[in-house]
């Protein structure tokens, strides 16, 4: 399990009880976490957890200048690649009238979400806009678009298909890390813009 967990962390995996229950259980043992952390430190990384301790990930331990550079690159990627996630979560919460979908472990039932979207022309337009964000080719039915969107976020680790037959998805701990990263990088970016000499003490993501 040690090798599997370390390889996952180095590949950028966010390990939580939803997406990787065995790995999460392994890292929840302080002795195992210490072993993994010691291994990562040899390559200037550290084992970190989200604020609510729902997920583990590898973070940089670089000096302030390198950390600032890495943070800006990650921020740029988030704005370009993960912007659809913010759009999707906003649509999800409004369509289902529930803010709890931003929490790790929350269950998304595709059929119920589709029914809520079908009941609102505005939501259907937003679904089509989101599908276009993910792929210029936006053909097919709204149901097909929703399936494509859900699979997209599964492939990026934000959702986990817990019941394929019923099309039940669960939000993973990566959503919590995403929010924390956005908060940190927004603060970091503003500080760097004011004074490049200001040190940065927070670890950045891989």
How would you sum up this structure in a few lines?
The protein is α+β, with helices and mostly antiparallel strands and 206 residues long. It has helices at residues 2-10, 21-28, 30-41, 64-81, 83-96, 110-118, 121-134, 142-155, 174-194; strands at residues 15-16, 45-49, 55-60, 107-109, 159-163, 168-171. It has a three-stranded antiparallel beta sheet with strand order 1-3-2, sandwiched between helices.
List the SSEs and their pairings:
Elements: H1 2-10, E1 15-16, H2 21-28, H3 30-41, E2 45-49, E3 55-60, H4 64-81, H5 83-96, E4 107-109, H6 110-118, H7 121-134, H8 142-155, E5 159-163, E6 168-171, H9 174-194
Antiparallel strand pairs: 1-3, 2-3, 4-6, 5-6
What does this structure look like?
- This protein is of the alpha+beta class.
- The chain is built from 9 helices and 6 strands.
- It has helices spanning 2-10, 21-28, 30-41, 64-81, 83-96, 110-118, 121-134, 142-155, 174-194; strands at residues 15-16, 45-49, 55-60, 107-109, 159-163, 168-171.
- It has a 3-stranded antiparallel β-sheet, sandwiched between helices. Strands 4-6-5 form a 3-stranded antiparallel β-sheet.
- α5 (83-96) runs antiparallel to α7.
- It starts with a helix and ends in a 12-residue tail after the last helix.
């Amino acid at each position: 399990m040690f090798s599997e967990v370390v390889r996952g962390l180095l590949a950028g995996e966010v390990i939580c009880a939803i997406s990787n229950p065995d790995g999460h259980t392994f890292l929840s043992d302080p002795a195992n976490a210490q072993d993994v952390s010691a291994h990562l430190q040899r390559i200037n990384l550290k084992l970190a957890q989200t604020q609510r301790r729902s997920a583990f990930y590898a973070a940089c331990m670089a000096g302030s200048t390198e950390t600032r550079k890495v943070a800006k690159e990650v921020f740029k990627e988030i704005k370009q690649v993960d912007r659809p996630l913010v759009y999707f979560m906003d649509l999800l919460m409004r369509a289902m009238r529930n803010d709890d979908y931003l929490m790790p472990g929350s269950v998304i039932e595709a059929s119920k979400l589709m029914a809520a979207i079908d009941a609102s022309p505005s939501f259907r337009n937003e679904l089509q806009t989101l599908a276009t964000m993910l792929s210029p080719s936006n053909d097919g039915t709204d149901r097909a678009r929703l399936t494509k969107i859900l699979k997209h976020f599964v492939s990026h680790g934000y959702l986990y298909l817990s019941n394929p037959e019923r099309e039940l998805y669960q939000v993973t701990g990566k959503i919590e890390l995403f929010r924390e990263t956005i908060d940190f990088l927004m603060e970091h970016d503003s500080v760097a813009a004011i004074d490049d000499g200001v040190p940065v003490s927070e670890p950045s993501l891989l």
